[in-house]
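Q: Given only this backbone (71 positions), what sequence would you predict?
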């Protein structure tokens, strides 16, 4: 399994969002994120709109900052 993050999908308020997705590959991660967003009512037109998923390598200990408040 692989680990992906997304910090630019739609949210309920104009504040930072962040999601973590565990999937076999990038395409599966996109589908899982879309389904989770749809389930929460954050995808209304049934289309994916340019979300960016970043893969986090799991080969070494690390800390990853998903959102630091800098815009």
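A: Predicted residues:
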């Amino acid at each position: 399994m692989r680990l992906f993050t997304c910090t630019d999908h739609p949210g309920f308020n104009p504040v930072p969002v962040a999601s973590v997705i565990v999937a076999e590959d990038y395409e599966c991660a996109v589908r899982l994120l879309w389904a989770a967003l749809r389930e929460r009512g954050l995808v209304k037109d049934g289309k994916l709109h340019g979300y960016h998923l970043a893969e986090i390598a799991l080969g070494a200990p690390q800390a990853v900052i998903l959102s630091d408040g800098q815009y």
